[in-house]
Amino acid sequence: MAKRVNQQLIADKLQVSRATVSRCFTNHPGINPETRGKVFKLAAALGYNHLEPRTGKGRRKSSPNRYGVLICTDVESYESTDYQSPGENLIAGLSEFSQLNNLLMEIHCVDPSEKTLTDPSYAKIETLGRREWDGVVLVYPFPETIVDELNLQVPVVSLVEQYSGTPVNCVDVDHHRGIALILRRLSDLGHKRIGFMTHRYGFDANWALRRHSAYVEEMTRLGLMVDPANVLNVRPTDRLVPEEAYAKALERTRYGVTAWVCAADHQAYGLISFFQQHGVKTPADVSVTGFDGIEKPDWAPELTTAVIPYYEIGQIGGRRLEDLAQKRFGSAQHVMLDCTLREGETVGPATSGSATSGPAAIN
Amino acid sequence: MAKRVNQQLIADKLQVSRATVSRCFTNHPGINPETRGKVFKLAAALGYNHLEPRTGKGRRKSSPNRYGVLICTDVESYESTDYQSPGENLIAGLSEFSQLNNLLMEIHCVDPSEKTLTDPSYAKIETLGRREWDGVVLVYPFPETIVDELNLQVPVVSLVEQYSGTPVNCVDVDHHRGIALILRRLSDLGHKRIGFMTHRYGFDANWALRRHSAYVEEMTRLGLMVDPANVLNVRPTDRLVPEEAYAKALERTRYGVTAWVCAADHQAYGLISFFQQHGVKTPADVSVTGFDGIEKPDWAPELTTAVIPYYEIGQIGGRRLEDLAQKRFGSAQHVMLDCTLREGETVGPATSGSATSGPAAIN
DNA sequence: GTATTGTGTGCATAAAGTTGCATAAAAGCA
DNA sequence: TGCTTTTATGCAACTTTATGCACACAATAC
User: Fold this and answer.
1) What digits encode the pLDDT tens for the residues A24-62?
2) A-chain residues near B212 (CB < 8 A)
């Protein structure tokens, strides 16, 4: 019978003493980070779970915790106040939470192009250098190296999906649910040939890939075929600039696609505008949907889209960080919040004509 | 004939003392959560209900909340205690949480084929009928009708993804992360032509679709093409029984697929066995991976797979329910927990031969 | 009443985990 | 180089946890 997994087993395998292993789990100072890393890694592999001691006696220190909020964006583009940016609501939710729970939050913007904590925009944050934070909130995607470095120092919560080798706590919208709401609506209206379109971004755009994968999943669930020709700018070989993608979408629409699911609102507005310029009307000729719930441009119709609950994401993010800082519920979690479908004016019933006929159907 | 169900019976079946069983039901501290999990699980299967007989004494402190735990499964398949089933760890985590927070949890098994709360296996749960619960935990997928009915009455947390029109709180493994870990490992070993296989289940198997969508996403991220011919039993039109799927996988392997990602461990074991019977060796000729982390059959090699943290899922689920019952953080959340990659003996480097040549490559 | 059955709990104990102190190795420093 | 300081780890003593034994108590049976 397999040996029971306990600290002794880990100690034996790594040729260290039981004491060392114990100290790793109890977060004692004076343990070589390398050793600690080995221990945690093996522990995970063996499935050892270090359970917090039952009787939570007199914990809860009273000094208010300090947290840092890092926003990975150019200061210029962030400061623009012309339209309500998503970030605004995120921060609102976050500070709402910190106020309610009597926490201190320091907000800083950092340069997206910098890759280590010693680079200027990080170095100039004194409180970070002095390790005075009990946790960090990351807003928008960060370079993987930064996430990993921070993760070793303090609890980290990211407010969008981070793609990283090490597990990261994160709070995000439920992309699957949003796409499912959209596709079910389209399906109810009789759409069967539904395409998916996105722009090409750098490698940070996990959300676009995630929404595409949700599209694949939900199409399958609805019993609809995914025609690779109707999926634009997702495959590794596709590298269309927006105009090319729009043109391609127009072509595919002439071949019978009756609805386009775009990975983001701004893409959808771009597509609608392009269609308009080429005499294709939304939603009369083709339906278009987005994802985000940003405010619509003046010229555009109200978009049918999934609205991301930014405010709540901020709130829940704060709460999760507080939990982590108190060492409760340690391993990485990914919290996805529900979103709502906003019924706009850009979807209509599937046009029976285009669903069955060829290139000449719309012109 | 069937013995009367009492604590002694449970104790005997689990080879522990009756004292231990008693302590489980009375929420004593100092009981191994794993043991408690086993006890509760078996109790549910046997239909034992510990209804506190002595209410007279002044022993109740601040009237603890009562929660129901419903397990949607056949009692027979659930009762077997031979090997450590996933459910056991789920319950263990759940009861650990309820012990720590002084909650009462009642566990019941219900019949998966019943679709409304008035059906027998629900009707016979008196405390449910009397609306005495402050919340319900659902284990395994339930019929949508049941989920919706319960959702109207009390806070509900599901311990696997539920596919439902109304938003449902749920705690699950991060399927995307698990598949990503597996695919990155395969990619590191030089695999490029990687297939995906699943069995066909009823419409409850959201996890299979979700894992497939994760496969699509991660393949794309790695810059690998998804060849529809190497994706088995996902499209609406595919309805292969396991043997057919295995045969198809064998054929595709001869055409150059070097690794198969299966949606679940038992599928992977089936595939490996089939390959073996047809002279294809794992991992020498082809790599195979799973998902779940169940214990391996005796005949099989240790599978490379993503291990689901059942224990933690139970814990976090309990916590989420408690939050909901106290009206905190209302809107539906989907919490996904990180999983770990278990390195087994079923993946190896991509065989350079088969990756480049045709049907004759393996024989 | 006394026997019987079922359940809760104090106490003992082995196994597992933690920690004070000593010490070896590494790093500063003149 | 040789001396001090720091850091990381082992040893062994100590603490905590999980569970069985045995008895106490209550409800029912006879």
Assistant:
1) 777 677 777 677 777 877 777 777 776 654 433 333 333
2) 216-217, 220
Which chain A residues in 45-64 sit with Cβ < 7 A of strand C?
50, 53
Contact A220 B228 (CB under 8 A): no
Contacts of A245 (CB under 8 A, 6+ apart): A197, A198, A199, A232, A233
- Angle, to 10 degrees, between the axis of helix B7-14 and the axis of helix B33-46? 120
What is the pLDDT averaged over residues B90-109? 79
- Is A210 in the same domain as A259? yes
Residues A247, A349, single domain; the answer is yes
| A84 in any annotated domain | yes
Please name the residue ranges forming H helices in chain B: 7-14, 18-25, 33-46, 75-79, 86-100, 120-123, 126-129, 144-153, 175-188, 206-221, 242-254, 265-277, 310-325, 352-356
Distance of A49 CA from D12 C1′ (whole Å): 26
What are the residues whose beta carbons fall under 8 Å from the beta carbon of A78, sequence distance 6 or more?
Answer: A71, A85, A87, A109
- Within this chain, do residues A240 and A93 fall inside the same structural domain, yes or no? no
Q: CB–CB of A249/A273 below 8 Å?
A: no
Q: What is the pLDDT of residues A52-74, one digit of tens each?
A: 544 333 333 334 567 778 887 76
- Amino acid type, A343: E
CA atoms within 13 A on the CB side of B57: 6
What's the start-to-end Cα distance of chain A, in Å? 73
* A58 within domain boundaries: no
Domain tally, chain B: 2
Is there a domain that residue A128 lies in?
A: yes
Tokens representing B104 are 């009462």
Residues B132 and B179 in one domain: no
Are A316 and B337 within 8 A, CB to CB? no
Query: Which residues of B fall within a CB distance of 8 Å from A188?
Result: none
What is the nearest nucleotide to B27, using C1' and CA?
C8
- Residue A330 and residue A285 in one domain: no
Residues in chain A within 8 Å Cβ distance of B167? 177, 338
CATH of the domain at A252: 3.40.50.2300
At A273-329, the pLDDT tens digits run: 999 999 999 889 999 999 999 888 889 999 999 999 988 898 888 888 887 766 655
Q: Look up the domain containing A273 and give its range.
A: 175-307+343-361
Place of tokens 């105009």: A243
Q: What is the DSSP letter of A359?
A: G
